[in-house]
Amino acid sequence: MRPFELTAPTTVEAALATPGTFLAGGTTLVDLMKLNVLTPPRVLDINALPLRGIDAADGLRIGALERMGDIAAHPGVYPVISRALLLSASQQLRNMASIGGNLLQRTRCSYFRDVATPCNKREPGSGCPAISGANRMHAVLGTSEKCVATHASDVAVALVALDAEVRLAGSDGERVVKLADFYRLPGETPEVENDLRPGELITEVVVPRLDWATRSTYVKVRDRQSYEFALCSAAVALDIRDSRVVDARVAVGGVATVPWRLRAVEDALRGEPAGLASFEAATALAAEGAEPLSANGFKVALLKRTIVRALHELAEESH
């Protein structure tokens, strides 16, 4: 780790006025600084900022500095969000990591984290060795010739499924962006991962009210049960009435370069019986546009099975 200056602003205004890299829980930033993937000259500890609180009175509002563990335990949080958080990391990490920091965490691609290898995210124009190299964990959706790295956040998948927004503060004032629009596909510029402008700060996560999202879940498939990153995950909410699907929300992780909303699957589910045949027919659309690499073709079938498993779990709960 290279030397850096540490300051601790106590107001949002002071934080925005001070150039530097924001530090909350530090579970991603400090890790990458130790690897010299990130080498900020100044780090701003923002834990004293008034960006906490969970309000579930009408929808859900979560301060950006709320810890993952506290959010997961809150009774007003939708099950899909709570479960995604609980499956994200150990209790120790959940007690440290902030929701804002989790949404901004960097990819776990081994090439990105190894400064001895090329990586277009880390050094634009240097290449993407994952395309022809070790790519079992990489994306099959939303990829480009420049990058095939998967997005790491579990809870971002759940939030995208529920049409969540992030409130951002910067030198030009505040703005609100849908989380699904906040993340950028790699395209020709994989180093630009999101819509966060220089000096901007996530201040709040806002989830619209969706009463039937109380029937929701997050299924995560991974190589080991204990806090591994996803090979594939599915965030699903279902509105089932009289044994038919009235509405649905479906997003997936571990298979795409951003949290991946599956609107075609949602459309195919609406109006259909809440049963295995309908679920399998709808999820046949899930892998449209997939471009498997040499070692991750299994993710195409795994993607469909993971969604069916989540849908089946919710349908069983409705009986």
UniProtKB/TrEMBL annotation:
Residues 1-212 form the FAD-binding PCMH-type domain. InterPro entries: CO_DH_flav_C, CO_DH_flav_C_dom_sf, Diverse_Substr_Oxidored, FAD-bd_PCMH, FAD-bd_PCMH-like_sf, FAD-bd_PCMH_sub1, FAD-bd_PCMH_sub2, Mopterin_DH_FAD-bd. Keywords: Oxidoreductase. The keyword Lyase does not apply. SUPFAM superfamilies: CO dehydrogenase flavoprotein C-terminal domain-like, FAD-binding/transporter-associated domain-like. The keyword tRNA processing does not apply. This is Xanthine dehydrogenase family protein subunit M. It comes from Amycolatopsis samaneae. The lineage of its organism: Bacteria, Bacillati, Actinomycetota, Actinomycetes, Pseudonocardiales.
